[in-house]
Design brief:
By secondary structure, the protein is an alpha/beta fold. It has helices at 2-21, 40-47, 72-82, 102-106, 122-129, 146-159, 170-179, 199-204, 223-232, 241-244, 249-268; strands at residues 51-56, 59-60, 64-65, 86-90, 112-116, 135-139, 162-167, 183-187, 189-190, 195-196, 213-217, 236-239.
């Protein structure tokens, strides 16, 4: 599957290279106030643990069509009302029916946004910088060397974008750290086999280093799972399919975010 995802990126990269040669790459987004993008890591640290990243995901290879009726704007409104700390926005077109324009459609809700795609070329970072996204996803298994990841991270830093480095095992985690990653996302779904196993987060959690921000993603749909991930040391969880599959994604999200609120209250009580 990862090779299929990589191949699907090539036409878009070719288009970006043509634009670069013509000096027509999109200009970076200009932000009001201090000129900085809304902080993704800061939003998660403030809201968690466990902060909930709510994902807009219309379809996937494992599930097929999930929900084409819910618009990006509608999802943003529901997710904001439901207590999402941040949004994850699928922009991959070929397999997930995403669109880069969804980021603009959801920006009005005032949440930090993660562009979730299979990005492999620095020009795609430049492309992301022209959107209101605060962060983008880098999947370690999409890269053949640490040097490639470092090049992507350097481009992110140039535009004030945060990089969420996704890992599946200890080897991926080593690559992310050697490249200088600060935000680690553990994906419980093996993208090669499309099998989900929360044991991946359980096994990797003890490897978390001080100062790192960790996210557990995929296969999370119950309050007790969020509690477990927070107890394991995860700062945030990313929830997508289980929300998008509900008739009322906002209500489903609120049920999850209430867990985070309860944990914060308990943490604030004297022993």
């Amino acid at each position: 599957m990862l090779e299929r995802f990589r191949e699907a990126q090539l036409p878009g990269i070719a288009r970006l290279r043509q634009l670069a040669q013509a000096g027509q790459l999109p200009e970076p987004r200009v932000f009001a106030g201090n000129g900085e993008r809304p902080g993704f890591a800061r939003a998660l640290r403030t809201a968690g643990p466990p902060a909930v990243i709510a994902e807009y995901k219309r379809a996937s290879p494992s599930r097929g069509v999930i929900n084409l009726e819910l618009t990006p704007a509608g999802a943003a409104r529901m997710y904001a009302e439901g207590g999402a700390a941040a949004f994850s926005v699928l922009t991959e077109e070929a397999h997930f029916q995403g669109d880069l324009r969804f980021l603009d459609d959801m920006a009005f809700a005032g949440r930090s946004m993660l562009r979730k795609d299979f990005l492999i070329d620095p020009l795609q970072v430049t492309e992301t910088a022209a959107t209101p996204a605060s962060a983008l996803l880098l999947i370690m298994r999409m890269f053949s060397s640490t040097a490639e990841v470092r090049a992507m991270l350097a481009e992110c830093a140039r535009f004030g974008l945060e990089a969420v480095c996704e890992v599946f095992d200890a080897t991926d985690l080593d690559m992310a750290r050697w490249a200088g990653a600060e935000i680690i996302q553990v994906n419980n779904r093996d993208l090669d086999r499309l099998v989900t196993d929360l044991g991946i987060s359980r096994r990797l959690a003890p490897m978390k280093n001080p100062g790192e921000l960790w996210i557990s993603a995929s296969g999370l749909d119950a309050p007790e799972q969020l509690t477990e991930m927070a107890d394991l040391g995860f700062d945030a969880v990313l929830v997508g399919t289980s929300l998008m599959s509900q008739s009322d994604p906002g209500a489903a999200l609120k049920k999850l975010t209430d867990v985070a609120s309860s944990r914060r209250e308990q943490r604030g009580k004297p022993a």
